[in-house]
Amino acid sequence: MDMREAIAAQTSFSLRLSSHLLSLNGSAGSNLAFSPLSLHSVLSLLTAGSSGPTHQQLLWFLGCPLASNLVALYFQISNSILVDGSAVGGPCICYAGGVWVDAGVNLKNSFREVAGSVYKAEAHSVPFRALVRIYTKD
Question: Which InterPro entries match (predicted)?
């Protein structure tokens, strides 16, 4: 899969998602704002850290045969589109990305490195189970 095919797959994902969300919104005269690129990037990041059936389902949903194609796409996006162009009169696009994972899940350093270097995102461990117990006590 070359870069054009990866971009086409991302575009197809965006159009499918837009169509679905607009069909749910249904009421005439209503507005909808969302970022397909943000959703695609976080699902791509999760794909990089997944394995087995989950990994295969994410690849299928994103329309991409290999996770390495997604990594290449977002490496290109983060190093060309999302760079600060203000020094030469261009825009400075701010993008915040991150993943919160239950503290019981051991994140590999390689996943954290890909998250930071390719996706410009951070992965944090949070004790979700302990927090649920705190907030659900009667």
Answer: Serpin_dom, Serpin_fam, Serpin_sf, Serpin_sf_1
